[in-house]
């Protein structure tokens, strides 16, 4: 189908109106029920087969299915409708405004823009009477921003597919990988004592200062030797530190929490063993030092890396769809952020790509917006991609 036919079937204005409606329904992480029910109603109006799946009480995911004319493969278009909080915002979060060809509001790019474009791509297939086989699933979930419970639950309930696209803001690049995340706590134990005799205690905070300096200068640089051709090397950031109990006591405890971005093939065990091995070396040199590395209590699920070969047909195919539908090949990129692609692909074995309008640099920010040109193009790209993946082919039983 040529690009003009598509642009006549669904106008950019319709997609903008849909996105405005979505932004107007607050759905900050934890309070997503209203938007899920609204989407369920919309799917019914559109004639899709629609179902709600309880992720937690009052936190449903919604899945709409557009059936093709013959049995075939299942393509899942998916993303999240929960948004980041709004307290730091400098614009009205839920009153969508259009200025300079951008739509402003919370969730406009992360990820309601992708939701609007994915839905309108299905509408486009309906309106043009597109002859395709298999199913196009529109699966929208709560709780991506915090614990990724939505997609995890859908996988648990057996909502599966042969291939998937995660709609996160990629600025129209085709995302084929991201690193995983491990939250690590290092606990240093000392000995409390009256502050008048600091030499009689063991100061855990001072020991921690030494541990951090040593890790940063001697151990963390070894991560740079672990090289992945696309994802680079692991990086680690110290994000939190807590220590001591009161000012007049030698601090007996200190905990430093790190977030490490991991590569495919690295296991949690290897990561922790590597750090502990280095700490053991420090302890051998200083018998008073007691330092232990463990998975942080903050981390409630293992967040694995996601990676597809950049020449995989699903990756190249989406890049081609960008060229056909929007006149410019989609640049293949790895993403700097973790998303549900990990759960779909790495954990559940569904070949997946990440693609969506908007820039991650304004997601979660005080002024979130989406470029309307990207929003419009995304509809035609998603539609072209669905047509190319589901065209004709019948699945052998
Ligand atoms: Zn997102």
From TrEMBL:
This is Peptidase, ArgE/DapE family. Belongs to the peptidase M20A family. Its cofactor is Zn(2+); Co(2+). InterPro entries: ArgE/DapE, Bact_exopeptidase_dim_dom, Peptidase_M20, Peptidase_M20_dimer, Peptidase_M20A. Residues 177-280 form the Peptidase M20 dimerisation domain. It is an enzyme of class 3 (hydrolase). Its EC number is 3.4.-.-. Keywords: Cobalt, Hydrolase, Metal-binding, Zinc. Pfam families: M20_dimer (PF07687), Peptidase_M20 (PF01546). GO terms for molecular function: hydrolase activity; metal ion binding.
């Amino acid at each position: 189908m040529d690009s003009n036919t598509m642009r006549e079937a669904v106008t950019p204005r319709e997609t903008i109106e849909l996105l405005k409606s979505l932004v107007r329904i607050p759905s900050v992480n934890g309070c997503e029920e209203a938007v899920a029910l609204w989407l369920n109603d919309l799917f019914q109006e559109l004639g899709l087969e629609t179902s709600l799946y309880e992720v937690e009480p009052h936190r449903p995911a919604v899945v709409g299915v557009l059936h093709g004319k013959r049995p075939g493969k299942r393509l899942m278009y998916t993303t999240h409708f929960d948004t980041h909080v709004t307290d730091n915002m400098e614009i009205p979060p839920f009153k969508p405004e259009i200025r300079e060809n951008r739509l402003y509001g919370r969730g406009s790019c992360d990820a309601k823009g992708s939701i609007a474009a994915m839905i309108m791509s299905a509408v486009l297939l309906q309106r043009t009477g597109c002859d395709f086989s298999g199913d196009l699933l529109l699966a929208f979930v709560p709780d991506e921003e915090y614990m990724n419970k939505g997609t995890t639950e859908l996988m648990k309930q057996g909502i599966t597919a042969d291939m998937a696209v995660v709609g996160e803001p990629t600025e129209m690049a085709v995302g084929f990988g991201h690193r995983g995340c491990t939250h690590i706590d290092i606990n240093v134990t000392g000995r409390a004592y009256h502050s008048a005799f600091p030499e009689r205690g063991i100061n855990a905070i001072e020991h921690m200062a030494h541990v951090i300096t040593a890790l940063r200068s001697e151990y963390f640089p070894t991560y740079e030797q672990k090289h992945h051709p696309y994802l680079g090397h692991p990086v680690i950031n110290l994000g939190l530190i807590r220590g001591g109990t009161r000012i007049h006591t030698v601090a007996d405890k200190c905990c430093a929490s790190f977030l490490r971005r991991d590569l495919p093939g690295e296991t949690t065990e290897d990561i922790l063993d590597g750090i502990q091995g280095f700490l053991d070396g420090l302890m051998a040199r200083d018998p008073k030092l007691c330092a232990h590395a463990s998975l942080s209590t903050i981390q409630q699920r293992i967040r694995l890396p996601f990676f597809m070969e950049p020449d995989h047909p699903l990756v190249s195919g989406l890049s081609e769809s960008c060229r056909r539908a929007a006149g410019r090949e989609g640049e293949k990129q790895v993403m700097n952020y973790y998303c549900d692609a990990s759960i779909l692909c790495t954990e559940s074995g569904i070949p997946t790509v990440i693609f969506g309008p908007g820039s991650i640099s304004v997601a979660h920010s005080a002024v979130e917006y989406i470029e309307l040109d990207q929003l419009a193009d995304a509809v035609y790209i998603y539609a072209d991609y669905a047509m190319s993946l589901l065209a004709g082919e019948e699945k052998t039983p």
